[in-house]
Amino acid sequence: MTPRDAEGNPADSSRWSDLDRPPLNAVALRRGLVREGGLWTGVDIVPRTGSTNSDLVALAAAGKADEGTVLVAEEQTSGRGRLDRRWTAPPRSGLFFSVLLRPAEVPVARWGWLPLLTGVAVATGLSRSAGVDTALKWPNDLLVTVGGEERKAGGILAERAGADGVVVGVGINVTLRAGELPVPQAGSLLLAGAVSTDRDPLLRGVLRSLEEWYGRWRGAGGDPMASGLQEAYAAGCATLGRTVRAELPGDRSVVGEAVAVDGDGRLVLATEQGVREPVGAGDIVHLRPA
To answer: Does the record bear Ligase in its keywords (predicted)?
Structure first.
């Protein structure tokens, strides 16, 4: 293992070498993930693309992707987060992938749980494979602790793919050093003290966790309570118990304590006026620790 300083920088080098960030092994990933009767039907890795979400939505529209298709990029040049925010990172420094899901047994009204389900699955998978404590910021950010501060190390974006499908994209910063962070509020698994930053087992762990949670949720007809998803999300959500500001569409904002995630996956705020307001879409700013 390469010696590193306190900020995660290689002690003997000012920049990453190819050995520090090896490419993913497509053959090994397929061997470990694709099996008869399982969710994952294919794993494809491309060296560079604009957005794995856009690519997979297009493949689904053309009838060239089955449910369980996984598309991974070593580098994304036009990665997107919520509210059309850009997601950029050096090549092979993270996990950037999208999956195609077709939850036919689940009413469309419950498909809004898929980003939250993915958050639970990612946090669970990384806890097992990277040994990093993670938390979820509603609705779709993955938080880690770096130097006693909460930092965003990942995000999730779900998009419809035709009438019967959803593409869920995930971006996770794995080996970004302090000097490579796009904004000061960002973090990475490396900076959070991960016991492993080997991307192959990390990706396998996340996808196996996603398969497990998706199967449980789908088997319950998308019921977040019966599947245990609502309880698991609340247990790992760093937003609950905090005073937050919800910046809503139409230039409206609401300040209140985040007290629950309801059955529709909305964040419920208790305002000073004694009103409980559910928020289904918007940007959440943590104003005070829990």
So the answer is: yes
